[in-house]
Amino acid sequence: MLRYIVKRIGLAIVTLFLLSLIVFALSQMLPANVARAVLGQFATQEAIDSLNHEIGADRPAVVQYLDYMRGFVQGDLGVSLASQTPVWSILEPALINSLKLAALAFVIVVPISIVGGIVAGLRSGTLGDRTITIFGLSMSAIPEFVTGIILILVFVIWLGWLPVTAQWDEGAGPLTQVKHLLLPSLCLALVLFGYIARITRAGVIEAVDADYTRTAYLKGLPTHTVIRRHVLRNALLPTIAVVATQISYLVGGLLIVEGLFNYQGIGLQVFLSAQQNDFTVLTSAVLVLGLVVLFVTLVADILYGLLNPRIRFGTAE
Amino acid sequence: MSVVDPDLIGPGAGGAPPTLVAPASEARTARNERLRLLLRTPTVLVGAFVLLFWVTFAILGDRITPYDPIFDQSQDVLVGPSSEHWFGTDTLGRDVFSRVLAGSRDILLVAPAATLLGTVLGTAIGLVIGYFRRRVDDVVSRVIDAILVLPVILTGVVVITALGSRSPLIVTILIGIVFAPLVARTVRAAVLAESELDYVQAARLRGERAPYVMFKEILPNVMPPIVVEFTVRLGYAIFAVAGLTFIGLGIQPPSPDWAVQVFEYYSFVDPYWWATVFPALAIASLVIAVNLVADGVREVYER
């Protein structure tokens, strides 16, 4: 088990290192001139040279990378090119806002999709199963902004139940915040629903067909005990791993949904930094998001290992 | 040749190049069988019908729309749906119904082209790392993992911002390149399973070169997962192109593309909902159609 955990952590570190290289290379090779992009095309050459020198863009790429990574590890992400404020002071509140949104989306989607998947799996082939499966498949394919527009039309314009922006007023209580976040988190949740439900369904069907389930039935256990103890226990294991892999899609969804609902999260920040050519904020935001995705995946991998006796006792990897 | 059991190679041993690939007629029967199964699935038929509808309008475009989707600018600005303008008009007085009908063209060019690029690149990478394994596999697989940490749309924002220019071509290449590792992962798994089989060993032992074994021997046998991957990826490609377009980085105005329309008018959604809602519904219909077909294809190939 320890070997499994150490191996996972090692792989995550290697992946993070490669990711940082890729992001850094992108930010290096593509804007021919960061200062030019920031100051605009009418800036004088002296102004550009001096800004380049100030931000250290005139040093060799390797030095810049090492310098940047040293800062990143120590929690110093540099200074925003556009606003001259520390990058972390911009990213921190945005990240917290996004976590609230993502958490609400997960709280909505995980129970609903797992129950949906279990119902579909236990009644596979019935009308109920087909409905859940096709609904999930369709929802996971529709971009978040499309569902968002339809939800706004129904709940904001027609029914008038919910506010159109996700941003609440200063000092709003948790309930008001949830009310503002309901529509955007629903957009994220609907995309995730189909995939999680599908994996749960597949796990349930496999477990129902397994020999141990037949044995459990044949030794006379009541149906609900068989389902709870034998079917669900085995079926939910892959679901944990899958829920975690969806974190990457969720991060992608944040970019769209926060734009649509004008919510001050990290997705909107990425979008604004891109518009302002603010590469220090953009690359740091991307790396921080990469770190979040890797961390969640790592935790899920370890959790999966702990719950899976085949890995816990080291008989499989 | 003497080390190879003649039974492995089959009756062709010694004469014509031996092959264990199913004869052409057998492959054709399997293909017909799959097609017949596909056409018997109601969800696939619904999806195919909707897809055909949008493809038709993508080809015919502004030749059959009631108004010109780009240049027709009437005095009626932002009027709601009426018998004259079924879906209303936008801020420039353009007929939203005509724009929705003409709006499938760009996405139906960009998404399939990107998917094709990703599938071809990914298949090549997957064949190479699945065939050579060890070092090559380890190194390339790590890089693939690193690329896949980021969602497509985030990679898109960084790359397009850095490039400093926006166009459908850039989006096509970008999505193709980002999809390649995903396809490569699927193909790699199929190639690993396939490499264990005797016909690959036989080809190696007769001294065939690696490219020959990869592309002539293994590739035809891993086509089913590649076909499935292509159809599934197509749905994701539409998703990704629409997403990038919605944040202003993909297809550009004045194209009547649906995501462009949503991008341009979503801040007017209350009360001018028609300028956004109808194009949004059109996107929904297209992605659902593609996914219904893809789901059917996967079921048929994986049974």
Q: Helical region count of chain A?
A: 14
Mean pLDDT of chain A: 83
Order of SSEs of chain B: HHHHHHHHHHHHH
The CATH topology of the domain at 91-264 in chain A corresponds to: MetI-like fold
CATH class of the domain at 106-252 in chain B: Mainly Alpha
- In sequence order, what are the helices and strands of chain A, one letter per element? HHHHHHHHHHHHHH
The strand count of chain B comes to 0
- Tell me the overall shape of chain B: elongated
How large a portion of the residues of chain A is in β-strands, by DSSP E? under 5%
- Give unreliable regions of chain A as ranges: none
Can you name the CATH architecture of the domain at 106-252 in chain B?
Orthogonal Bundle
Task: Report the total helices of chain B.
Answer: 13
Helix fraction of chain A, binned, reads: over 70%
For the sheet with most strands of chain A, the description reads: none
User: What is the class of the domain at 91-264 in chain A in the CATH system?
Assistant: Mainly Alpha
Cα distance spanning the termini of chain A = 9 Å
Please count the beta strands of chain A (DSSP E, at least 2 residues each): 0
Descriptive notes:
- The complex is a heterodimer of chains A (317) and B (303).
- In chain A, 78% of the residues lie in helices and 0% in strands.
- Chain A is an all-alpha fold and 317 residues long.
- Chain A has a domain at 91-264: MetI-like (MetI-like fold), CATH 1.10.3720.10.
- In chain A, helix 12 packs antiparallel against helix 13 (279-307).
- The longest helix of chain A is centred in the N-terminal third of the chain and has 36 residues, at 87-122.
- The mean pLDDT of chain A is 83.
- In chain B, helix 5 packs across helix 11.
- Helix content of chain B is 70%, strand content 0%.
- Chain B is mostly helical and 303 residues long.
- Chain B has helices at 6-9, 24-39, 42-60, 96-102, 105-132, 134-149, 152-163, 168-195, 198-205, 210-221, 223-246, 258-265, 274-302.
- Chain B has a domain at 106-252: MetI-like (MetI-like fold, Orthogonal Bundle).
- Chain B is elongated.
- Chains A and B meet through helix 1, helix 6, helix 7, helix 11 and helix 12 of A and helix 6, helix 7, helix 11 and helix 13 of B.
